[in-house]
Design a protein that fits this description.
Shape: extended
Number of helices: 2
Order of helices and strands: HHEEEEEEEE
Helix content: 10-25%
Distance between the termini: 82 Å
Structural class: alpha+beta
Length: 135
């Protein structure tokens, strides 16, 4: 019985350095740091009622809150009825950038569309949404 207790104690001591090295030592999780690199003015916009047959331009603005330049790598609208434009140059720390979506308001009725934005700071796309009603 005494050998079992000693073996168990040695096993715990042997693996302690391993576990100590894998636990996060920073007070800020990595996900939060990435999320804070870009501060969006709004991630969702309600455009209200818009006229049929007239494209609607929706502009999402953001500020680079990180300490290094950010590049927008990809902007992907959710459907063919929406086109996108965005800041093509690196956005320096503290500076503003934009993503624009142009919605073809061809069909009457309510709509909700998304635009996925991938940046140099995060390979996980940020989803921006806009909605409204084509009258």
């Amino acid at each position: 019985m005494k050998k079992l207790k000693i073996t168990a104690l040695l096993a715990v001591l042997a693996f302690s350095p391993f576990y100590a090295n894998i636990l996060p030592s920073e007070s800020h999780p990595v996900v939060k740091v990435i999320a804070d690199a870009i501060k969006w003015k709004s991630e969702s916009i309600d455009v209200g009622n818009i006229p049929q047959g007239k494209p609607k331009l929706i502009r999402f603005e953001f500020t680079n809150t990180s300490s290094k330049p950010i590049v927008i790598e990809n902007v992907a609208p959710s459907c063919g009825c929406t086109t996108a434009d965005y800041t093509k140059t690196p956005i320096l720390p503290g500076k503003k950038g934009f993503v624009e979506a142009s919605y073809n308001a061809a069909s009457k009725g309510p709509f909700m569309k998304t635009v996925n934005v991938t940046t140099s700071e995060s390979k996980t796309p940020k989803t921006l949404t806009f909605k409204g009603v084509v009258a």
